[in-house]
Amino acid sequence: MEEILSLARSVSASPLFTGRMLFSEPLAPRTTMQVGGAAAACAVPEDESSAVFAAWMAVREGLPFFVLGGGSNIIVRDEGLDVLVISLERLDGISYKDGLLTVGAGAKFDSITEFCAKNCLKGLSSFAGLPGTAGGAAFMNARCYGVSAGDLIDSAVYVDLDEIEEEKRSSADFALANLEKVYHNREGEWAYKKSPFQSFRSLILSVTFRVEAMERSEGNETRLRSECRDFVEDRRSKGHFKAPSAGSVFKNDRRFGKPSGQLVDEAGLKGLAVGGAQIAPWHGNFIINRGTATAGDIKALVEEARFAVKERTGFVLETEIIFV
Fold it and tell me: E strands within the chain?
């Protein structure tokens, strides 16, 4: 713990870091599931350079850290994280030029789809209401209504943290220009809930999406806003916003012949509760927080569902949510 606190103080005191450094920072409010303990320290950088510097310092010192986006797909352990958490919430800029929409990794999709509607940019409406960030969507290859993030991404700016560890750990100098890389989307590197950024320790800084520019008019803006509302209302009708959750718990696997939620339902587990956590009565692939859930409750439900489905069908469900 003391090593992490010392690291956090060093990062915060450096002229190379602009932002806030929070200590004993509760993480539950920073996740959509609303569970988990506190982070020993949480850096909230104001810009890309500061975010990279915080990660670079941690790698150089050989100390653990965790990059936090929208917190929509993670379950933080009850005892908290004895690491430096780097929150990208301030990396939320959005700009458009020549068919390309570039957004900071911390930009939330509510802001992104609002920008698109206002500027009559078509292509991202199906992501309206997704409680996540651009960086998280790129990392997880988020999929909404048959459209995956990888289908729309043109490029991304990122840092290869493994490379820092191998080649730059002993360096006395920090230079963002030497660390940033640009990934250009290549066919065959994306799959269902898989992205090329999962194959190494990556820090995604910004994402550029391909969008279609429509004629700027009140009619087109209204049309795009209506599309976004329809997707949000469809999510609402399916119970996505009834209670805190982390979205789909298990990945779907075509080999199983049925969606994972249906397999959980057919195992008779819909509505099953452990402590304050419950498999949603309306959707077998959602675990909700009824107000007093712990990470331990959620993990117990996940294991119960996996065991029951395997016993009944022989299929082993793979989790989409990440326990940290």
Answer: 19-26, 38-45, 65-68, 74-75, 81-87, 94-97, 100-104, 121-122, 143-144, 147-148, 153-160, 180-184, 202-210, 212-213, 245-248, 273-274, 277-279, 286-289, 322-323
pTM, two decimal places? 0.92
Q: Is 114 designated active site?
A: no
Catalytic residue list contains 111: no
Nearest to 294 by CA among 305, 278, 308: 278
The helix/strand/coil state of 307 is: helix
One-letter amino acid of 286: F
Q: What is the pLDDT of residues 7-25, one digit of tens each?
A: 999 999 999 999 999 999 9
Nearest to 9 by CA among 51, 47, 48, 40: 40
Of 126, 206, 248, 260, which is the active-site residue?
A: 248
- Give the angle 52-48-86 at the CA atoms, nearest 5°: 55
| Joined tokens for residue 261 | 């939620």
Average pLDDT over residues 41-57: 95
Q: Round to whole Å and give the CA distance between 64 and 97.
A: 37
For every residue of 160-178, DSSP letters joined together read EHHHIIIIITT-S---GGG
